[in-house]
Amino acid sequence: MLDKLKKLFYSHFDESEIKIQKNVDKSIKCYVKTEDKLLNVLIFLKKNGYNHLSDITAIDRIKDDKFELIYNIFSYEKKQRLFIIIKIDRKKSEFITIEDIWHQAQAYEQIIHEFFGIVFKGNPDLSGLILHNWLDLPPLRKDFDTEAYSRKAYIVDEMQTSCPEVNKVD
Amino acid sequence: MTDEMLTLSTEDVKNDGFHKVVNWFRSKSMWMLYYCTGCGAIELPPTMTSRFDMGRFGMGPMATPRQADLLLITGYVSVKTLKRIVRSYEQMPTPKYVVGFGACAINGGIYWDSYAVINKLERFIPIDMFISGCMPRPQSILDTFQKLFKKIQKGEALGWKKYEKNYEWYKKNQDSVLKRTEPVLNQ
Q1: Where is A56: in which H helix or E strand?
Q2: Is B5 helix (H, G, I), strand (E, B) or coil?
Q3: Paired residues of A22 in beta bridges
Q4: Which residues of A touch B179 (CB under 8 A)?
Q5: What is the pLDDT of residue A169?
Q6: How far is A1 from chain B (nearest CA, A)?
Q7: What ipTM does this complex have?
Q8: How many C-beta neighbours within 10 Å does residue B48 have?
């Protein structure tokens, strides 16, 4: 399967642009090196049978100063799962939407925007979906301190003592 | 059963024994609304069905908060859930009782450092009884209900009065989480 896929890819793309690797299970990881090529790769895959987008996720690689976007793609004909992985700049944290290729990507991108703060240019709706009235850093970024947040927001001892009458009932 | 039977003299009735009778009847007919926030909901079906059968204590499930006496909060409470819990609780008619299930309702449990889960439910609505455990088994749930009924009969389960009396304090705590206007950490 890996050889077939390599043949398919390298007939169309240059070897320096895409690196193909076997994953621990039967799925295959494809690292796309340049950001501009991602749309081409996805359209090419959709034409060649990989027509189901299962998920989009992100990983915060804070040591490399990068965000990793992972497009989880499946082919029902070939029974094969592909992870298209692309690294984007963490400071800029901006990328293009793939909503035109798969419509359901809109919601996945909306959630990634909410939890990582990545802006997808061209996505019509990036409003909050899950968190309630969130004003801090996006919570799944590695530089967000969830323990400090929880201590400050929910374990406030002043709240406990400021109302001494709370346990008294006539 | 005869030991538990209520005896009431004329003097008792004169000294507000009426509420004693009413409380005794209340404890024998409990309609519960279970707010299944977390994993605790898994222990309720065996408690309700034939094996442990909570129906023998005069308890039954109720579909709407407006006809329920007892609110069960089974598990962790996220910020979004808290909003719904407060809404359900305020719709219930008095007297109303709340039972918090498991470590998560007490102090956040394993989610104590999560950004999404509140830590002490007691601060937002009054709780009459807590059950320890992660999650509590049906035996301990039934045991807690027995203790709650005794408390109701004695007239000690007064969480709803606490809420009425300290309404502003509870509202302030709720708003500090639900209607936040500034970021918590200035990062």
Answers
A1: strand A52-61
A2: coil
A3: A28
A4: 133
A5: 59
A6: 42
A7: 0.79
A8: 18
